[in-house]
Amino acid sequence: MPAEQRVWTIIDIIRWGTGYLTDKGFDEARLTVELLLSETLGLKRFDLYVKHDQPLKQGELEKLRTLIKRRLAHEPVQYILGKTTFYSIDLKVDRRALIPRPETEILAEAVIEHCRTFLSQKEGVRVLDIGTGSGCIAIAIARFVKNASVTAIDSSAQAIELADENSRATKTDDRIHFMQSDFLKGSVDSFEGPFDIVVSNPPYIPASEFSGLPEEIRSYEPSNALTDGGDGLGFFRKIAESAPTLLRSGGWVFVETADGQAKHVADIFSGSGGSEVGMKKDLLNIERVVMSRFFVRSMD
To answer: By residue range, what is the domain housing residue 23?
Structure first.
């Protein structure tokens, strides 16, 4: 961090910080500096360039130094800021839950589009969100599907606490019911189905690959939100097995998968009676979302 003795303007800090973080091997160095500087000064990123010649006070330099040190320790920027944006919704994030990813917006979008296309005339659409984490998927569905009500579960009491905070902050709490439940090990009878849709971004990293994850993921994000402790397919098997209990006849399952995992998940769904199995690619052309329809005996 530059010394406080000289006068440092906003543009000086952006130039210095971009070079410094780049030299340290961090990706998106300029964006990182802009975000940390915006947080320090209480400005939007655009305003940094409008006020590019504004000098920083000593207290502001000290605050920025603290934030940069946290990033140098590989703490994710979203945790440093305590917030992120998911599907145009501002959310609180911290180490209680996984940081929402852009790929997961593809999953949320698939469910929202399905509801708007096929279920818009239904009086009420019931959705089960398995492994809700920060609550990002449940909140996006509740915000953009006006006839939806969501039951959102997670094995972590801390994650449920964070998700509930986000739900209340986004004024979607009247249509989301949060429950602490270990889906992988517990019974699904307590979820009070049937549901029209089951959606999940489950822990899908195989245990054998966990040690190879980037440090900022491995050391900061909750491991139980990343890996099932096995081959990464445990949740998909349980979802497929539970579909007849959870869904209305003709209901759909939507899940997010890892790179190269979609075909295995599609086979699991097909082998468990799923039909009309489909996939949706993310912006990197990776098969990211798997969806399947399950025709079961009606529970109505």
So the answer is: 10-73
